[in-house]
């Protein structure tokens, strides 16, 4: 046997993913099981959200809780843009629709 034969023989025993996709499947199942239903928003809270939306200016630091794909997320970021006709705003390059906002507050101007 020569050295090349030894290398080829050893290569067949290199680690491999015997359960290909298992990690992704586990993550998918965890994500599905942790989903929650969207909370109802009171008229009072809707007015508070609307009031804050009207005060937003580009570059403001805001804190935002919103609903997306069965989960609530909280982010703090720089407000970039608001689109009233299509009912969304952009924070940290992420589009968030007004109906998905659960809480919003201005952290710094």
Kindly report the average pLDDT value: 86
**What is the count of β-strands?**
5
Distance separating the two termini: 74 Å
Q: Give the CA-based shape.
A: elongated
Largest sheet: 5 strands, antiparallel
Unreliable residue runs: none
CATH topology of the domain at 43-108: SH3 type barrels
Q: H/E series, N to C?
A: HHHEEEEE
> What's the CATH first level of the domain at 43-108?
Mainly Beta
CATH architecture of the domain at 43-108: Roll
What is the C-alpha radius of gyration, as a whole number of Å? 24 Å
What is the tally of helical segments? 3
Derived structural class = alpha+beta
Spatially, the strands of the biggest sheet line up as: 4-3-2-1-5
Strand content: 25-35%
Helical proportion, percent range: 25-40%
Provide the descriptors you would attach to this structure in a database record:
SH3 type barrels, 31% helix, 3 helices, single chain, 109 residues, alpha+beta, five-stranded antiparallel β-sheet, elongated
What is this structure's SSE topology?
Elements: H1 3-11, H2 22-33, H3 43-55, E1 61-68, E2 71-83, E3 88-91, E4 94-97, E5 101-108
Antiparallel strand pairs: 1-2, 1-5, 2-3, 3-4
Brief summary of the model shown:
The protein is α+β, with helices and mostly antiparallel strands and 109 residues long.
Kindly describe this structure.
Strand 3 and strand 4 (94-97) form a beta hairpin. The protein has 109 residues and is of the alpha+beta class. It contains three helices and five strands, in the order αααβββββ. The protein has a domain at 43-108: SH3 type barrels (Roll), CATH 2.30.30. Strands 4-3-2-1-5 form a five-stranded antiparallel sheet. It is elongated and about 55 Å long.
């Amino acid at each position: 046997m020569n050295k090349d034969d030894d290398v080829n023989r050893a290569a067949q025993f290199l680690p491999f993913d015997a359960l290909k996709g298992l990690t992704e499947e586990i993550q998918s199942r965890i994500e599905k099981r942790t989903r929650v239903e969207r909370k109802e928003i009171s008229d009072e809270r809707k007015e508070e959200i609307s009031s804050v939306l009207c005060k937003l200016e580009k570059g403001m630091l805001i804190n935002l809780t919103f609903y997306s794909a069965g989960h609530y997320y909280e982010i703090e970021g720089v407000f970039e843009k608001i689109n009233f006709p299509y009912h969304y705003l952009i924070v940290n390059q992420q589009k968030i629709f007004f109906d998905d906002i659960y809480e919003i507050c201005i952290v710094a101007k």
